[in-house]
Amino acid sequence: MKVAVVPRSLPGYLCVNTSSHSIMSGLEVAAAVVGVTDVAIRSILLSYDFLKDIQEAPEAVARLRQETNAVVQSLQSLDCLKSANGKVQELVKQVGLAEAVNQCGASCDGLNKNLAKWTSSGDGLVSKLQMVRHKAQVEKCCQQIRTAKGTVVLAVSVASLAMLAASSSNADDKKRDQVAQLEQEISRLQIEVQGERDAAAQTALALQKRVESDEDDLDAQVAISESRQQLEACDQLWANCLVAEDELITLAKVDVAVGDMLADTQSQNYAGVPKDVLKRVAQAKVKVGNMKASNGSVNRVGIF
Prior knowledge:
The protein is mainly α. Helices cover 64% and strands 9% of the residues. The protein has helices spanning 20-34, 38-52, 59-75, 86-94, 97-118, 124-133, 135-165, 172-213, 218-251; strands spanning 253-257, 261-263, 268-273, 283-287, 291-293, 298-303. A two-stranded parallel ribbon has the order 1-4. Strands 2-5 form a two-stranded parallel sheet. Strands 3-6 form a two-stranded parallel sheet. Pfam families: PigL_N (PF17111). Residues 27-191 form the Azaphilone pigments biosynthesis cluster protein L N-terminal domain. Keywords: Coiled coil.
């Protein structure tokens, strides 16, 4: 299965620092707040270090290295949860952060043990052949890492929006921007994971045909199991997107306050929420001062 991996930066409102101290700080916060285990943290970081040192890796391992680097970078943003209250922490848990990162850690742990075996000969060609032979496991781990990375982005985005939603109404413009960014991120992840799921399903089908024609093909049987776990990781990220979507609707509250409204000489004034963004808003409060319209003019307040 070929999956194109394009490097993507995190949304701009996620706080990211590249120092190793910040990485550990962010991961420790995640562990304390939402139940991410220390074992998962160590396994992911070990994979990160291990994969950096593999030279002339096959394409699948190169993608895995890229994804591992990306998930380590995204985990840094969990440092933002330090200031989160209990309500925000609960929202983060509901997005599935702990499950995704812990599963990613378990997968990385298994991969680390196998990478040690595959590269133990010191022969680059033998190591490369071993990795190609176990491509299904590498692809499964790659998908679980992508699921963890995507879920971290969703969780921190939801947390950031929730903390902002609890602030003063002066931050409404920023809230609307973050709602739009999170909506775009959810849509992007859904499109991405659907493509990955379709590709994994096709691979599983091809492997099943191999087993049907040769029941003694043990490699294919193992690869089928790996492909199923890859599909489960895709389904997990899709489900996490749906939860984040529901939380987005709940958090999208907008306050609109304007002064006096004067419409004159066939003009129109609007205050409120446009119809095209209504689906993004759970609650809108509109407050205006005195209104006056003359000479065929119109003042409108509410939904327009």
